[in-house]
Amino acid sequence: SQTIHQWPATLVQPVGSPLSLECTVEGTSNPNLYWYRQAAGRGLQLLFYSVGIGQISSEVPQNLSASRPQDRQFILSSKKLLLSDSGFYLCAWRGNYNSPLHFGNGTRLTVT
Amino acid sequence: KQEVTQIPAALSVPEGENLVLNCSFTDSAIYNLQWFRQDPGKGLTSLLLIQSSQREQTSGRLNASLDKSSGRSTLYIAASQPGDSATYLCAVFGSIGAGKSTFGDGTTLTVKP
Predict the structure, then answer these.
(1) Is any Cβ of chain A less than 8 angstroms from the Cβ of B2?
(2) Are A103 and B36 a contacting pair at CB < 8 A?
(3) Cα A73 vs. chain centroid, distance in angstroms?
């Protein structure tokens, strides 16, 4: 069966520090991969999605970037965090556009 | 631009009650719609996926319907239990391919014993 791993679960970082969040999927190949951010009490905002290695589409221009160095690995990065980057970051995958979207457990990022 | 609205924002019911959660979307040109459950501080758990060509999907006590022409979906929960307490979100996928998604803000359900 397929599983998705996301780490770390929580992270506290000072303003101006770099960020790297990692997500990996097991048990499938060539998944569509997604990064979302959820503000408190709100729905999810799509940040990036990827249909293959090295292929990244950005939905919202901001202080973040994403990379997909391997088929089942998706990384969210920032060179310098801002206070406004605080939030709950969720990685997700699906096999194709007819398949359900599956989420990881999320990373709670607090920028101080 | 697609907008997804979920009303009410919060709902409290006694155990055993049947209930309906609502999701409406502004652009009917969707590819599919998915319902999720989110427990506090956790990721989202997929409940039901409805393709645009389908009218409903069922899983256990859950039944989701889709009326694409009117831009509405409902999630019906039968015989609610305290364990059903969570936030329920709907998402619409508007294009083929990787699928750009738009999420509602969710309905927070509390089922009282």
Answers:
(1) no
(2) yes
(3) 10
Q: Which amino acid is at A62?
A: Q
Q: What is the pLDDT of residues A21-75, one digit of tens each?
A: 999 999 999 999 999 999 876 779 999 999 999 999 888 767 899 999 999 999 9
Four-residue CA torsion sign, B81, B86, B91, B97: negative
Check if the beta carbon of residue A68 is closer than 8 Å to that of residue A32: no
- B43–A41: do the CB atoms touch at under 8 Å? no
Tokens of B110: 């509390």
Within 8 A of B36 by CB-CB distance, chain A residues are 103
* Residue B65 near residue B79, CB atoms below 8 Å: no
CA nearest to A93, candidates A17, A12, A30:
A30
Instruction: Give dist(CA A31, CA A72) in Å, integer.
Output: 7
Contact in structure between A5 and A102 (CB atoms under 8 Å) = no
Q: What is the CA radius of gyration of chain A?
A: 13
Report the percentage of chain B scoring pLDDT > 70.
96
Cβ-proximal residues to B89 (8 Å cutoff; 6+ apart), any chain: A43, A44, B6, B35, B36, B37, B38, B44, B103, B104, B105, B106
Would you state the structure tokens that stand for residue B3, as one six-digit string? 């907008």
User: Is A101 an interface residue toward B (CB < 8 Å)?
Assistant: yes
What DSSP line would sit under A40-86, residue for residue?
TTS-EEEEEEEEETTEEEESS-SS-EEEEEETTEEEEEESS--GGG-
Chain B nearest-CA distance from A66, in A, is 16
